[in-house]
Design goal:
- This protein is of the alpha/beta class and about 650 residues long.
- The protein has two domains: about 180 residues, no CATH class; about 325 residues, Alkaline Phosphatase, subunit A (3-Layer(aba) Sandwich).
- It has 22 helices and 19 strands.
- The strands form five sheets. Strands 7-6-8-1-9-13-2-14 form an eight-stranded mixed beta sheet. It has a four-stranded antiparallel beta sheet with strand order 16-17-18-19, with no helix packed on it.
- Helix 1 packs parallel to helix 7.
- The longest helix is centred in the last third of the chain and has 29 residues.
């Protein structure tokens, strides 16, 4: 029977310290640089779980009950950390498997510790035993969420971290060193990207220019015009003032950018039952077409929707994306794929703690500089940089003027459901707070864009084409909705588009013809001296035009939703012809607007334009294609940024 005194507080402290150090090491080794606030919260929670229950159990009189209580108290830090590691991984296959796995761990670890407390008078696990248990749970979690074994180097690194933490925690005098060493690892900066260019890349034409695609996700046209980087590129190139997005969210829009096809033809988006569809396999994409022409290709992408799961990595020699870094991340949740201590995940889920975006603009600028420094001078370069900072969630609750802890957490979590359920967010004050936080993120991206533009330096002898654009805009209750992906209003479809370095286009020129995402691929191939693909089927022929042509022809532009939504006026498709815009909604509803006189789309002209409406052809039928479907990884990516949150 355990002696009522002294209590094993020293052992409890060292075990809690082991689990804290091991958990933050796991988060850093499988993910990005950690947050100081998250580390502090996790340390407080684990020390409380490790020490307070032991103190309470120690108040019981000496008996078997006291032994059981001490054993259970000693098991809590391990149950908490191991449960956080396994929960989301087990939930990937079936939602109920997460709670079931935590319950099983609780029973196993609790029984193990109670037995050790009663039989061996050792209510607190030794760090070495705790390391073995955590190692097994980690390997099992990886297997469950990826149906594969983790890379050997990653596995050895994590297990070595566990062993090192256990070795220090086992020694009373050495254990406090974990308070310094674990944060040092957790806060270690990201390693710069070092591209490995393909040796089989063919020789390129000496006149083929470098091509730099700078996409700022969720950037509205009205907000973009205030950016210093926008104004700088507008002075150096041509500004397209009436550029129209192919869709109101990332997947269909970026699929159009990369294939040159409109959404009805490439069919990338979501079908019934939240079945997501990516780039069609049989359609060549921009990176493949340019690499065949001698280009080195690199992409740095922070939106998990534009991921390799949906086919966007095709053709890129160097691919650095959020989804690549999150494949093995632990601890995680089903919808927040970045690794953080489980206490931080739990606090965010309960709205006690904010949730920062995974990567930020500074990371992308650093990666872009690394690519530019390691490029091969004899090959032209295609560089695609995709920022996500302007997308929910925002990190500027303190500067936004929002009062009240709950609303600050809603802002930092990016919970669009909470925005819609609380009428305050739709008020003038609430919208102002959202816009302030949004503009703070834009300022962060603006600084990173200027850094990249400076790193580019003077154009090389072969020339350089730089494109600054957005995949879609954002709604802030202008038409009763919030965020994007639910409708086809102009605040979602009017996107910035600037191109510098186009032959035949004078610096500082302005183009007012309505153009769209479908025009980018033909424009860039023409600039690179590459031919357009010549498909046999009509549905795969490119409808876009070369934007270097100073005599552009105005053409009808079709935008499609391709996302299931229940927000106000869930538009299915839209047609823009000059300043006339038609919206086709559910059950055959049609709205018509004159954007020149009514840019806010308030006055429906459908009754006046009946003859004009009769001339508009029906939307072409969706083209069936074999496409990258994303699978489990794709669904997780969608959930991460709110598209499939329900």
């Amino acid at each position: 029977m355990p002696d009522p005194s002294p209590l094993p507080l020293g052992a409890a402290f060292r075990t809690a310290l082991f689990f804290w150090a091991a958990e933050v090491s796991l988060a850093r080794l499988t993910s990005d640089q950690q947050s100081v606030a998250d580390l502090g919260l996790s340390l407080i929670v684990l020390l409380a779980l490790g020490l307070l229950p032991v103190l309470l159990a120690g108040r019981l009189p000496a008996s078997r009950l006291r032994g059981v209580a001490l054993g259970l108290a000693g098991a809590l830090p391990g149950i908490f950390v191991c449960g956080g590691v396994i929960y989301a991984a087990a939930s990937v296959e079936r939602l109920r498997y997460g709670p079931m796995s935590v319950l099983a761990l609780t029973l196993l670890i609790g029984a193990w510790r109670v037995n050790a407390s009663l039989r061996y008078e050792r209510p607190i696990s030794r760090p070495v035993g705790a390391a073995i248990v955590l190692g097994v749970v980690t390997l099992l979690a990886w297997r469950l969420m990826n149906a594969a074994f983790a890379p050997l180097l990653l596995t050895l690194s994590v297990l070595a971290a566990y062993v090192g933490c256990a070795a220090l925690a086992s020694r009373p005098r050495a254990a406090p060193a974990l308070l310094a060493l674990a944060p040092l690892l957790a806060l270690w900066p990201e390693r710069a990207l070092v591209p490995e260019w393909s040796e089989s890349t063919p020789t390129a034409s000496a006149e083929a220019p470098d091509i730099v695609l700078l996409c700022v996700d969720t950037l509205r046209l009205d907000a973009a015009r205030a950016m210093e980087s926008y104004q700088r590129l507008a002075a150096e190139g041509v500004e397209f003032t009436r550029a129209q997005a192919a869709g109101p969210w990332t997947l269909p829009s970026m699929a159009t950018v990369m294939t040159g096809l409109p959404p009805w033809s490439h069919a990338a988006g979501s079908n019934a039952g939240w079945a997501y569809v990516g780039l069609p396999f049989e359609v060549p994409v921009l990176a493949e077409l340019l690499r065949d022409g001698g280009y080195d290709t690199a992409a740095l992408v922070h939106n998990p929707v534009a991921s390799e799961a949906f086919g966007f990595a095709r053709g890129f020699d160097a691919w650095d994306a959020a989804t690549v870094r999150t494949r093995w991340s632990l601890p995680r949740t089903r919808s927040t794929l970045e690794a953080r201590p489980f206490a931080a995940h739990l606090a965010a889920a309960r709205r006690w703690w904010g949730r920062r975006p995974f990567f930020d603009a500074e990371d992308l600028a650093k990666g872009a500089r690394s690519v530019l420094e390691s490029r091969r001078a004899e090959h032209p370069l295609l560089l695609w940089v995709h920022f996500l900072d302007c997308h929910f969630p925002y990190r500027s609750a303190g500067a936004s003027g929002v009062e009240g802890w709950r609303r600050k957490m809603e802002l930092e979590r990016g919970d669009s459901h909470a925005y819609r359920s609380d009428p305050w967010w739709g008020s003038d004050e609430g919208r102002a707070a959202l816009l302030t936080a949004y503009q703070e993120e834009i300022a962060r991206v603006d600084d990173a864009l200027l850094e990249i533009l400076d790193a580019l330096g003077p154009p090389p002898a072969r020339g350089r084409v730089v494109v600054l654009f957005s995949d879609h805009g954002e709604e802030f209750f202008e038409h009763g909705g919030i965020e994007h992906g639910h409708a086809l209003w102009q605040e979602l479809l009017a996107v910035p588009l600037l191109i510098s370095g186009l032959p035949g286009r004078a610096p500082g020129s302005v183009e007012d013809t309505v153009v769209g995402h479908q025009d980018l691929l033909p424009t860039l191939l023409a600039a690179a001296g590459r031919p357009l693909p010549q498909p046999e089927d009509a549905a795969s022929r490119l409808p876009g035009q070369d934007l270097a042509n100073p005599s552009l022809v105005g053409r009808p532009l079709v935008s499609e939703n391709l996302l299931r939504s229940r927000q106000p006026w869930d538009s299915e498709w839209a047609v823009r012809i000059g300043d006339r815009k038609l919206l086709f909604g559910p059950d055959g509803a049609v709205l018509a607007f004159d954007l020149a006189e009514d840019p806010g789309e308030r006055v429906d002209r459908a009754a006046e334009w009946s003859e004009f409406l009769a001339e508009i052809l029906q939307r072409p039928p969706r083209v069936p294609r074999k496409s990258a479907g994303g699978g489990r990884e794709g669904l997780q990516a969608m959930m991460k940024i709110g598209y499939a949150g329900n």
